[in-house]
Protein backbone atom coordinates (compact mmCIF):
# COMPACT_ATOMS: atom_id res chain seq x y z
CA UNK A 1 0.00 0.00 0.00
CA UNK A 2 1.42 3.40 -0.96
CA UNK A 3 1.31 6.33 1.43
CA UNK A 4 -0.65 9.31 0.05
CA UNK A 5 1.81 12.12 -0.64
CA UNK A 6 -0.03 14.57 1.66
CA UNK A 7 0.18 12.34 4.76
CA UNK A 8 2.88 13.10 7.32
CA UNK A 9 4.40 9.78 8.37
CA UNK A 10 4.60 10.47 12.15
CA UNK A 11 0.83 11.35 12.23
CA UNK A 12 -0.30 8.10 10.57
CA UNK A 13 1.03 5.90 13.34
CA UNK A 14 -1.99 5.56 15.68
CA UNK A 15 0.24 4.65 18.59
CA UNK A 16 1.60 8.17 18.71
CA UNK A 17 -1.94 9.53 19.06
CA UNK A 18 -3.22 7.60 22.06
CA UNK A 19 -5.73 9.90 23.80
CA UNK A 20 -4.57 11.13 27.20
CA UNK A 21 -5.99 9.51 30.34
CA UNK A 22 -7.09 12.79 31.94
CA UNK A 23 -8.96 13.83 28.79
CA UNK A 24 -10.81 10.51 28.54
CA UNK A 25 -11.63 10.61 32.27
CA UNK A 26 -13.12 14.07 31.81
CA UNK A 27 -15.60 13.02 29.11
CA UNK A 28 -19.31 13.02 30.02
CA UNK A 29 -19.58 9.25 29.73
CA UNK A 30 -16.64 8.75 32.09
CA UNK A 31 -17.77 11.24 34.74
CA UNK A 32 -21.24 9.67 34.75
CA UNK A 33 -19.82 6.15 35.00
CA UNK A 34 -17.51 7.16 37.86
CA UNK A 35 -20.67 7.86 39.89
CA UNK A 36 -22.49 4.66 38.96
CA UNK A 37 -19.66 2.16 38.51
CA UNK A 38 -16.73 3.55 40.46
CA UNK A 39 -13.46 5.22 39.48
CA UNK A 40 -11.38 2.05 39.44
CA UNK A 41 -13.65 0.41 36.88
CA UNK A 42 -13.66 3.50 34.64
CA UNK A 43 -9.87 3.81 34.75
CA UNK A 44 -9.56 0.17 33.78
CA UNK A 45 -11.85 0.70 30.76
CA UNK A 46 -9.91 3.84 29.77
CA UNK A 47 -6.74 1.77 29.86
CA UNK A 48 -8.33 -0.93 27.66
CA UNK A 49 -9.40 1.66 25.09
CA UNK A 50 -5.92 3.22 25.07
CA UNK A 51 -4.39 -0.23 24.63
CA UNK A 52 -6.68 -0.87 21.65
CA UNK A 53 -5.50 2.38 20.02
CA UNK A 54 -1.89 1.59 20.81
CA UNK A 55 -2.24 -1.84 19.20
CA UNK A 56 -3.70 -0.25 16.08
CA UNK A 57 -7.07 -2.00 16.57
CA UNK A 58 -8.98 1.25 17.11
CA UNK A 59 -8.55 4.57 15.26
CA UNK A 60 -7.69 7.30 17.81
CA UNK A 61 -10.65 9.44 16.73
CA UNK A 62 -13.02 6.56 17.75
CA UNK A 63 -11.57 6.27 21.25
CA UNK A 64 -14.20 8.46 22.88
CA UNK A 65 -17.18 6.70 21.32
CA UNK A 66 -15.65 3.29 22.08
CA UNK A 67 -15.18 4.36 25.68
CA UNK A 68 -18.84 5.41 25.85
CA UNK A 69 -19.97 2.07 24.41
CA UNK A 70 -17.89 0.09 26.85
CA UNK A 71 -18.99 2.13 29.87
CA UNK A 72 -22.64 1.79 28.90
CA UNK A 73 -22.48 -2.00 29.04
CA UNK A 74 -24.82 -3.36 31.71
CA UNK A 75 -23.51 -3.83 35.20
CA UNK A 76 -24.66 -7.42 35.32
CA UNK A 77 -24.28 -10.43 33.09
CA UNK A 78 -27.88 -11.18 34.05
CA UNK A 79 -30.73 -9.87 31.89
CA UNK A 80 -34.44 -9.55 32.50
CA UNK A 81 -36.38 -11.89 30.18
CA UNK A 82 -40.07 -12.63 29.65
CA UNK A 83 -41.05 -16.26 30.18
CA UNK A 84 -43.24 -17.18 27.20
CA UNK A 85 -42.43 -20.90 27.48
CA UNK A 86 -45.59 -21.78 29.38
CA UNK A 87 -43.41 -23.52 31.97
CA UNK A 88 -44.44 -21.91 35.22
CA UNK A 89 -41.37 -22.65 37.34
CA UNK A 90 -38.57 -22.54 34.79
CA UNK A 91 -35.22 -23.67 36.15
CA UNK A 92 -33.23 -21.83 33.48
CA UNK A 93 -35.16 -18.61 34.02
CA UNK A 94 -34.61 -18.26 37.76
CA UNK A 95 -37.59 -20.37 38.89
CA UNK A 96 -40.14 -18.21 40.76
CA UNK A 97 -40.48 -14.48 40.11
CA UNK A 98 -40.88 -12.62 43.40
CA UNK A 99 -44.00 -10.66 44.33
CA UNK A 100 -43.84 -6.88 44.64
CA UNK A 101 -44.05 -7.36 48.41
CA UNK A 102 -41.06 -9.71 48.39
CA UNK A 103 -39.06 -7.30 46.20
CA UNK A 104 -39.72 -4.45 48.65
CA UNK A 105 -38.67 -6.71 51.50
CA UNK A 106 -35.35 -7.40 49.72
CA UNK A 107 -34.87 -3.65 49.29
CA UNK A 108 -35.46 -3.08 53.01
CA UNK A 109 -33.18 -5.90 54.11
CA UNK A 110 -30.47 -4.73 51.71
CA UNK A 111 -29.67 -1.91 54.10
CA UNK A 112 -28.91 -2.22 57.80
CA UNK A 113 -31.79 -3.85 59.64
CA UNK A 114 -32.54 -5.45 63.02
CA UNK A 115 -31.69 -8.91 61.68
CA UNK A 116 -30.20 -10.16 64.94
CA UNK A 117 -31.10 -7.40 67.36
CA UNK A 118 -33.93 -7.00 69.83
CA UNK A 119 -34.75 -3.30 69.53
CA UNK A 120 -36.70 -3.32 72.82
CA UNK A 121 -33.74 -4.39 74.93
CA UNK A 122 -30.87 -3.44 72.66
CA UNK A 123 -29.54 -6.98 73.09
CA UNK A 124 -28.69 -9.58 70.52
CA UNK A 125 -31.80 -11.20 69.02
CA UNK A 126 -32.33 -14.42 67.08
CA UNK A 127 -32.40 -14.15 63.29
CA UNK A 128 -35.41 -15.44 61.40
CA UNK A 129 -37.86 -15.30 64.33
CA UNK A 130 -40.64 -13.47 62.48
CA UNK A 131 -40.18 -15.67 59.41
CA UNK A 132 -40.52 -18.82 61.51
CA UNK A 133 -43.66 -17.43 63.09
CA UNK A 134 -45.06 -16.78 59.59
CA UNK A 135 -44.24 -20.36 58.55
CA UNK A 136 -45.88 -21.83 61.64
CA UNK A 137 -48.94 -19.68 61.02
CA UNK A 138 -49.10 -20.91 57.43
CA UNK A 139 -48.67 -24.55 58.49
CA UNK A 140 -50.33 -25.00 61.90
CA UNK A 141 -49.54 -28.74 61.79
CA UNK A 142 -45.83 -27.88 62.18
CA UNK A 143 -44.36 -27.56 65.66
CA UNK A 144 -41.05 -26.11 64.49
CA UNK A 145 -39.53 -24.47 61.44
CA UNK A 146 -36.04 -23.74 60.18
CA UNK A 147 -35.02 -22.02 56.94
CA UNK A 148 -31.81 -22.81 55.06
CA UNK A 149 -30.46 -21.70 51.69
CA UNK A 150 -32.15 -24.27 49.43
CA UNK A 151 -34.12 -27.48 49.30
CA UNK A 152 -31.02 -29.63 48.94
CA UNK A 153 -29.55 -28.04 52.09
CA UNK A 154 -32.78 -28.73 53.98
CA UNK A 155 -32.50 -32.41 53.11
CA UNK A 156 -28.75 -32.58 53.76
CA UNK A 157 -29.07 -30.95 57.19
CA UNK A 158 -31.95 -33.22 58.17
CA UNK A 159 -30.11 -36.39 57.16
CA UNK A 160 -26.88 -35.17 58.72
CA UNK A 161 -28.65 -34.58 62.02
CA UNK A 162 -30.92 -37.62 62.06
CA UNK A 163 -29.25 -40.20 59.85
CA UNK A 164 -25.56 -40.02 60.70
CA UNK A 165 -23.81 -43.31 61.22
CA UNK A 166 -26.90 -45.28 60.36
CA UNK A 167 -29.28 -46.22 57.58
CA UNK A 168 -31.78 -44.17 55.67
CA UNK A 169 -34.47 -46.31 54.05
CA UNK A 170 -35.58 -45.10 50.59
CA UNK A 171 -37.76 -46.67 47.90
CA UNK A 172 -35.93 -47.50 44.65
CA UNK A 173 -38.61 -45.53 42.81
CA UNK A 174 -37.60 -42.36 44.62
CA UNK A 175 -33.81 -42.31 44.17
CA UNK A 176 -33.98 -39.35 41.86
CA UNK A 177 -31.67 -36.93 40.10
CA UNK A 178 -32.98 -33.41 40.67
CA UNK A 179 -31.11 -31.73 37.84
CA UNK A 180 -27.73 -31.18 36.22
CA UNK A 181 -26.25 -34.38 37.63
CA UNK A 182 -27.35 -33.77 41.23
CA UNK A 183 -28.55 -37.00 42.72
CA UNK A 184 -30.36 -37.18 46.01
CA UNK A 185 -28.75 -40.52 47.02
CA UNK A 186 -25.27 -38.97 46.64
CA UNK A 187 -26.33 -35.99 48.71
CA UNK A 188 -27.59 -38.23 51.49
CA UNK A 189 -24.48 -40.41 51.55
CA UNK A 190 -22.27 -37.34 51.68
CA UNK A 191 -23.76 -36.60 55.12
CA UNK A 192 -22.43 -39.88 56.49
CA UNK A 193 -25.64 -41.87 56.32
CA UNK A 194 -25.99 -45.13 54.36
CA UNK A 195 -28.87 -45.66 51.97
CA UNK A 196 -30.92 -48.80 52.29
CA UNK A 197 -32.87 -49.21 49.05
CA UNK A 198 -36.16 -51.02 49.20
CA UNK A 199 -38.75 -52.16 46.62
CA UNK A 200 -38.35 -51.83 42.87
CA UNK A 201 -38.43 -48.91 40.48
CA UNK A 202 -42.17 -49.16 39.89
CA UNK A 203 -43.50 -50.83 43.04
CA UNK A 204 -42.69 -50.60 46.73
CA UNK A 205 -44.88 -52.01 49.50
CA UNK A 206 -45.19 -51.37 53.22
CA UNK A 207 -43.63 -54.78 53.93
CA UNK A 208 -40.51 -53.80 51.96
CA UNK A 209 -39.97 -50.98 54.42
CA UNK A 210 -40.89 -53.08 57.45
CA UNK A 211 -38.45 -55.85 56.48
CA UNK A 212 -35.61 -53.36 56.06
CA UNK A 213 -35.93 -51.84 59.53
CA UNK A 214 -33.15 -52.90 61.89
CA UNK A 215 -30.89 -51.67 64.65
CA UNK A 216 -29.11 -49.25 62.28
CA UNK A 217 -32.24 -47.66 60.89
CA UNK A 218 -32.33 -43.92 61.60
CA UNK A 219 -35.15 -42.75 59.36
CA UNK A 220 -37.39 -43.48 56.41
CA UNK A 221 -37.07 -40.96 53.62
CA UNK A 222 -39.95 -40.28 51.25
CA UNK A 223 -38.92 -38.26 48.21
CA UNK A 224 -41.39 -36.71 45.81
CA UNK A 225 -40.26 -37.47 42.24
CA UNK A 226 -40.92 -33.87 41.24
CA UNK A 227 -39.62 -34.05 37.69
CA UNK A 228 -40.90 -37.40 36.40
CA UNK A 229 -43.73 -39.85 36.83
CA UNK A 230 -43.86 -43.63 36.86
CA UNK A 231 -47.06 -44.69 35.15
CA UNK A 232 -48.78 -48.05 34.74
CA UNK A 233 -48.20 -50.93 37.16
CA UNK A 234 -47.05 -48.91 40.15
CA UNK A 235 -47.36 -48.90 43.91
CA UNK A 236 -45.96 -46.59 46.52
CA UNK A 237 -46.46 -46.29 50.24
CA UNK A 238 -47.86 -43.05 51.58
CA UNK A 239 -46.75 -41.15 54.65
CA UNK A 240 -49.73 -42.31 56.81
CA UNK A 241 -48.69 -45.99 56.42
CA UNK A 242 -44.96 -45.27 56.79
CA UNK A 243 -45.66 -43.38 59.99
CA UNK A 244 -47.03 -46.60 61.56
CA UNK A 245 -43.61 -48.30 61.41
CA UNK A 246 -42.15 -46.58 64.47
CA UNK A 247 -39.24 -44.90 62.62
CA UNK A 248 -39.08 -41.13 61.98
CA UNK A 249 -40.41 -40.34 58.50
CA UNK A 250 -38.76 -37.49 56.60
CA UNK A 251 -40.68 -36.30 53.55
CA UNK A 252 -38.96 -34.25 50.85
CA UNK A 253 -41.97 -32.76 49.06
CA UNK A 254 -39.84 -30.68 46.69
CA UNK A 255 -42.02 -27.85 45.53
CA UNK A 256 -42.95 -26.07 48.76
CA UNK A 257 -46.70 -26.35 48.50
CA UNK A 258 -47.74 -25.66 52.09
CA UNK A 259 -51.37 -26.74 51.75
CA UNK A 260 -53.17 -28.88 49.14
CA UNK A 261 -53.97 -27.06 45.90
CA UNK A 262 -57.14 -28.06 43.97
CA UNK A 263 -55.44 -27.62 40.58
CA UNK A 264 -52.56 -29.90 41.55
CA UNK A 265 -54.21 -32.88 43.27
CA UNK A 266 -51.16 -35.16 42.86
CA UNK A 267 -48.70 -32.68 44.35
CA UNK A 268 -47.78 -33.35 48.00
CA UNK A 269 -48.03 -30.54 50.54
CA UNK A 270 -46.43 -29.87 53.91
CA UNK A 271 -49.59 -29.67 56.02
CA UNK A 272 -50.95 -33.01 54.80
CA UNK A 273 -47.66 -34.87 55.32
CA UNK A 274 -47.15 -33.48 58.83
CA UNK A 275 -50.73 -34.30 59.78
CA UNK A 276 -50.20 -37.79 58.35
CA UNK A 277 -47.32 -38.35 60.75
CA UNK A 278 -44.12 -37.17 59.07
CA UNK A 279 -41.50 -36.07 61.61
CA UNK A 280 -39.94 -33.65 59.12
CA UNK A 281 -40.99 -32.13 55.82
CA UNK A 282 -38.36 -30.48 53.62
CA UNK A 283 -39.08 -28.30 50.58
CA UNK A 284 -37.84 -25.47 48.36
CA UNK A 285 -39.02 -21.92 48.88
CA UNK A 286 -38.87 -20.93 45.24
CA UNK A 287 -40.90 -23.50 43.37
CA UNK A 288 -44.66 -23.60 43.93
CA UNK A 289 -44.37 -21.56 47.12
CA UNK A 290 -43.21 -18.75 44.84
CA UNK A 291 -40.60 -17.16 47.09
CA UNK A 292 -36.82 -16.76 46.87
CA UNK A 293 -34.48 -19.72 46.65
CA UNK A 294 -34.57 -21.20 50.14
CA UNK A 295 -34.99 -24.52 51.90
CA UNK A 296 -37.75 -25.13 54.39
CA UNK A 297 -37.53 -27.63 57.22
CA UNK A 298 -40.85 -28.08 59.00
CA UNK A 299 -40.84 -30.41 61.97
CA UNK A 300 -43.74 -32.00 63.81
CA UNK A 301 -42.07 -31.37 67.18
CA UNK A 302 -40.58 -28.00 68.08
CA UNK A 303 -37.46 -29.57 69.68
CA UNK A 304 -36.40 -31.21 66.45
CA UNK A 305 -36.17 -27.83 64.71
CA UNK A 306 -33.96 -26.67 67.61
CA UNK A 307 -31.70 -29.71 67.18
CA UNK A 308 -31.32 -28.92 63.48
CA UNK A 309 -30.54 -25.26 64.18
CA UNK A 310 -27.81 -26.25 66.64
CA UNK A 311 -26.19 -28.73 64.26
CA UNK A 312 -22.72 -27.51 63.15
CA UNK A 313 -23.64 -27.80 59.47
CA UNK A 314 -26.54 -25.44 59.97
CA UNK A 315 -24.17 -22.46 59.82
CA UNK A 316 -22.93 -23.58 56.40
CA UNK A 317 -26.51 -23.73 55.13
CA UNK A 318 -27.61 -20.43 56.66
CA UNK A 319 -29.99 -18.32 54.58
CA UNK A 320 -28.99 -14.68 54.15
CA UNK A 321 -31.05 -11.67 55.16
CA UNK A 322 -32.34 -10.97 51.64
CA UNK A 323 -33.75 -14.49 51.46
CA UNK A 324 -35.29 -14.34 54.93
CA UNK A 325 -36.99 -11.03 54.12
CA UNK A 326 -38.30 -12.13 50.71
CA UNK A 327 -39.61 -15.42 52.06
CA UNK A 328 -41.41 -13.76 54.96
CA UNK A 329 -43.07 -11.26 52.61
CA UNK A 330 -44.06 -14.14 50.31
CA UNK A 331 -45.79 -15.84 53.23
CA UNK A 332 -47.45 -12.78 54.75
CA UNK A 333 -48.11 -10.69 51.62
CA UNK A 334 -50.47 -11.11 48.68
CA UNK A 335 -50.40 -14.31 46.60
CA UNK A 336 -47.03 -14.98 44.97
CA UNK A 337 -46.91 -14.54 41.17
CA UNK A 338 -46.46 -18.30 40.65
CA UNK A 339 -49.73 -18.93 42.42
CA UNK A 340 -51.60 -16.24 40.51
CA UNK A 341 -50.20 -17.57 37.24
CA UNK A 342 -51.21 -21.11 38.17
CA UNK A 343 -54.76 -20.02 38.92
CA UNK A 344 -55.33 -17.78 35.89
CA UNK A 345 -58.02 -19.37 33.70
CA UNK A 346 -57.65 -20.17 30.03
CA UNK A 347 -60.44 -17.67 29.27
CA UNK A 348 -58.50 -14.88 31.01
CA UNK A 349 -55.34 -15.81 29.13
CA UNK A 350 -57.28 -15.89 25.85
CA UNK A 351 -58.52 -12.36 26.49
CA UNK A 352 -54.93 -11.22 27.05
CA UNK A 353 -53.77 -13.00 23.89
CA UNK A 354 -56.53 -11.30 21.86
CA UNK A 355 -55.47 -7.91 23.23
CA UNK A 356 -51.83 -8.58 22.36
CA UNK A 357 -52.67 -9.77 18.84
CA UNK A 358 -54.82 -6.67 18.28
CA UNK A 359 -51.75 -4.57 19.02
CA UNK A 360 -49.59 -6.46 16.52
CA UNK A 361 -51.31 -5.25 13.33
CA UNK A 362 -49.21 -5.88 10.25
CA UNK A 363 -47.54 -8.88 11.91
CA UNK A 364 -48.55 -12.49 11.20
CA UNK A 365 -49.85 -13.12 14.75
CA UNK A 366 -52.73 -15.32 15.95
CA UNK A 367 -54.31 -16.38 19.20
CA UNK A 368 -53.56 -20.03 19.92
CA UNK A 369 -54.82 -22.37 22.66
CA UNK A 370 -51.88 -24.11 24.32
CA UNK A 371 -51.04 -26.32 27.27
CA UNK A 372 -48.66 -25.11 29.94
CA UNK A 373 -46.91 -27.09 32.66
CA UNK A 374 -45.59 -26.46 36.14
CA UNK A 375 -42.03 -27.45 35.19
CA UNK A 376 -39.11 -29.14 36.94
CA UNK A 377 -40.27 -27.48 40.14
CA UNK A 378 -43.10 -29.90 40.68
CA UNK A 379 -46.36 -31.47 39.55
CA UNK A 380 -44.92 -33.63 36.74
CA UNK A 381 -47.56 -34.45 34.18
CA UNK A 382 -49.92 -31.67 35.28
CA UNK A 383 -51.34 -30.01 32.16
CA UNK A 384 -52.79 -26.52 32.44
CA UNK A 385 -54.99 -25.37 29.53
CA UNK A 386 -53.48 -22.09 28.47
CA UNK A 387 -53.39 -19.59 25.65
CA UNK A 388 -50.73 -17.75 23.73
CA UNK A 389 -49.72 -15.80 20.67
CA UNK A 390 -48.51 -17.67 17.60
CA UNK A 391 -45.89 -15.90 15.45
CA UNK A 392 -43.72 -16.79 12.44
CA UNK A 393 -41.20 -19.44 13.47
CA UNK A 394 -38.02 -17.38 12.77
CA UNK A 395 -39.09 -14.84 15.38
CA UNK A 396 -38.27 -17.33 18.16
CA UNK A 397 -34.52 -16.84 17.78
CA UNK A 398 -34.90 -13.11 17.16
CA UNK A 399 -36.98 -12.71 20.33
CA UNK A 400 -34.19 -14.22 22.41
CA UNK A 401 -31.99 -11.43 21.08
CA UNK A 402 -34.47 -8.57 21.64
CA UNK A 403 -33.48 -5.72 24.00
CA UNK A 404 -35.84 -7.37 26.51
CA UNK A 405 -35.65 -11.01 25.38
CA UNK A 406 -38.75 -13.21 25.22
CA UNK A 407 -38.39 -16.97 25.57
CA UNK A 408 -40.96 -18.73 23.40
CA UNK A 409 -41.77 -22.31 22.36
CA UNK A 410 -41.37 -23.77 18.90
CA UNK A 411 -44.56 -25.64 18.02
CA UNK A 412 -46.04 -26.86 14.70
CA UNK A 413 -43.60 -24.68 12.75
CA UNK A 414 -44.62 -21.56 14.67
CA UNK A 415 -43.09 -19.49 17.44
CA UNK A 416 -45.57 -19.66 20.32
CA UNK A 417 -45.51 -17.22 23.23
CA UNK A 418 -47.56 -18.82 26.02
CA UNK A 419 -49.02 -16.10 28.24
CA UNK A 420 -49.46 -18.09 31.46
CA UNK A 421 -46.05 -17.29 32.94
CA UNK A 422 -45.96 -13.68 31.75
CA UNK A 423 -47.03 -11.07 34.28
CA UNK A 424 -49.95 -9.02 32.82
CA UNK A 425 -47.91 -5.92 33.70
CA UNK A 426 -45.28 -7.12 31.19
CA UNK A 427 -47.65 -7.37 28.20
CA UNK A 428 -46.68 -3.87 26.97
CA UNK A 429 -43.08 -5.03 27.00
CA UNK A 430 -44.04 -8.22 25.14
CA UNK A 431 -45.74 -6.16 22.40
CA UNK A 432 -42.68 -3.87 22.22
CA UNK A 433 -40.25 -6.80 21.93
CA UNK A 434 -42.32 -8.51 19.20
CA UNK A 435 -42.72 -5.26 17.24
CA UNK A 436 -38.98 -4.63 17.57
CA UNK A 437 -37.93 -7.99 16.12
CA UNK A 438 -40.69 -8.03 13.47
CA UNK A 439 -39.56 -4.62 12.20
CA UNK A 440 -35.93 -5.80 12.10
CA UNK A 441 -36.98 -8.93 10.15
CA UNK A 442 -38.58 -6.90 7.32
C1 LIG B 1 -36.11 -29.29 43.67
C2 LIG B 1 -36.00 -30.42 44.59
C3 LIG B 1 -34.94 -30.52 45.50
C4 LIG B 1 -33.83 -29.52 45.54
O1 LIG B 1 -34.27 -28.26 45.95
P1 LIG B 1 -33.37 -26.97 45.62
O2 LIG B 1 -34.16 -25.87 46.23
O3 LIG B 1 -33.26 -26.90 44.13
O4 LIG B 1 -32.07 -27.20 46.28
C5 LIG B 1 -34.91 -31.60 46.36
N1 LIG B 1 -35.87 -32.53 46.31
C6 LIG B 1 -36.91 -32.47 45.47
C7 LIG B 1 -37.95 -33.55 45.49
C8 LIG B 1 -37.02 -31.40 44.57
O5 LIG B 1 -38.04 -31.34 43.72
What would you say this structure looks like, in words?
With 442 residues, the chain is an alpha/beta fold. Helix content is 38%, strand content 17%. It has a 7-stranded mixed sheet, sandwiched between helices. The protein has a 4-stranded antiparallel sheet with strand order 13-14-17-16, covered by helices on one side. Helix 3 crosses helix 4 and helix 6 packs antiparallel against helix 15. The chain starts with 8 loop residues before the first helix and ends with a helix. About 1% of the residues have low confidence. The structure holds pyridoxal-5'-phosphate. Pyridoxal-5'-phosphate binds next to helix 8 and strand 10.
Core attributes:
about 450 residues; alpha/beta; seven-stranded mixed β-sheet; binds pyridoxal-5'-phosphate
Task: Describe the sheet with the most strands.
Answer: 7 strands, mixed
Provide the structure class. alpha/beta
What share of residues is helical? 25-40%
- Continuous helix count: 19
Question: Would you spell out the secondary-structure blueprint of this structure?
Answer:
Blueprint lengths: L8 H4 L8 H5 L2 H10 L1 H16 L8 H10 L9 E2 L16 H11 L6 E2 L4 E2 L4 H10 L5 E5 L2 H13 L3 E5 L5 E3 L2 E2 H6 L4 E5 L7 H7 L4 E7 L15 H4 L6 E6 L15 H6 L4 E5 L10 E5 L2 H9 L2 H4 L4 H12 L4 H7 L2 H13 L7 E7 L11 E9 L2 H6 L5 E2 L1 E3 L2 E5 L8 H15 L1
Parallel strand pairs: 1-15, 5-8, 5-9, 9-10, 10-11
Antiparallel strand pairs: 2-3, 4-12, 6-7, 11-12, 13-14, 14-17, 16-17
Helix pairs in contact: 3-4, 4-5, 6-15, 7-15
The structure holds pyridoxal-5'-phosphate (PLP).
Amino acid sequence: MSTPPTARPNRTDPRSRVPRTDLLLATDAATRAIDTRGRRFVKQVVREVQDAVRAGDLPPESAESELRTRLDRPLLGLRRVLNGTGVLVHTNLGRSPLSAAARSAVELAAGTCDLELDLATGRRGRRGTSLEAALLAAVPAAGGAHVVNNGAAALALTTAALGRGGEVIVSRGELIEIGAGFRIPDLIESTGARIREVGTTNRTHLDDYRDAIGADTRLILKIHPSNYRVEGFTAEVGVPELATLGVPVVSDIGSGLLRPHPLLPAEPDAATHLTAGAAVVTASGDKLLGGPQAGLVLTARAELAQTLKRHPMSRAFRADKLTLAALEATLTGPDAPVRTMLETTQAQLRERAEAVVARLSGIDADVLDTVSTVGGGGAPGARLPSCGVSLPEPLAAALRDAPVPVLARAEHGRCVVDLRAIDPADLDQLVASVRHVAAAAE
